[in-house]
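Board notes, transcribed. Complex of a protein with calcium ion.
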Amino acid sequence: MAAALEPSGWWQLWRRRLSARDGSRMLLLLLLLGSGQGPRQVRAGQTFEYLKREHSLSKPYQGVGTSSSSLWNLMGNAMVMTQYIRLTPDMQSKQGALWNRVVRIFLPPVWLTQKPCFLRDWELQVHFKIHGQGKKNLHGDGLAIWYTKDRMQPGPVFGNMDKFVGLGVFVDTYPNEEKQQERVFPYISAMVNNGSLSYDHERDGRPTELGGCTAIVRNLHYDTFLVIRYVKRHLTIMMDIDGKHEWRDCIEVPGVRLPRGYYFGTSSITGDLSDNHDVISLKLFELTVERTPEEEKLHRDVFLPSVDNMKLPEMTAPLPPLSGLALFLIVFFSLVFSVFAIVIGLILYNKWQDQSRKRFY
Ligand SMILES: [Ca+2]
């Protein structure tokens, strides 16, 4: 392990430890420590991590895509297999997606469906496999991982809608732009969108990317992983694709403002060229980070995604989404007010009738 440490010291070690890939092993550790309900302390007073089962997916995929109460919905050509979920098979013109939601909750008098993720700091670990018959650039198009306002919206961006609102991380396996000699594919890139930008497929999303790196991920005989971490508005993307059980840096962007209450999903598309795009697991960890009072002020909730020092075309901020309680209170007080108004109306009407009767006699 010591040999794997880079000169930047404990920070790297902390980051790797933070990315404990095996959630079940972590839970076992918690149970052994006699604190099955509690989090694991990663570093004194700093960061805790919890596996959030409601936003995670792993084998066996019971009920996925079939049960109405499933946490995960399938779309398009996506299929549940015993060992993986296949977003697309190695066939032309297919697209598939997998989207998370939390099961519906009854809060009288309304049913609240499709509850999204409200975590502030999180880490998503993606275990995936891309493989197929295609040789030397004759395969495509790759897969995307999403944290977005909308879910289940098919479209041209790796099988998802264009002009999305949120974060997209792309594992692009086919170089569409001929001139990109200096860029070796497959290539991982990230994009934050407030709904105003189009993903330029012909240029592999280059005009709007936050950063990226080469990731040789096709037809490997060992497991491949990607981790997206969002802590204190800092977006970090790392990968473990060399079979060494080590995270390698790919993208690091500070000042990324993502609203809470978005959905996690993954999608893929094939065109003239194809590949099998498989997802084996998605594990979401809640990271609990201490903030100074200044940071608390700085990290207030936002309602539209943005990146500091990067100008996105203006969009009008939508009204903040209503929480379940707010919705319930609005409905409840509207009902009370309506009943009250009817009663007052009836009283006034009776009085008016009495008066007109008196006048008449
Ligand atoms: Ca491409």
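The helical segments are 10-18, 23-32, 293-298, 324-360. The longest strand covers residues 276-289.
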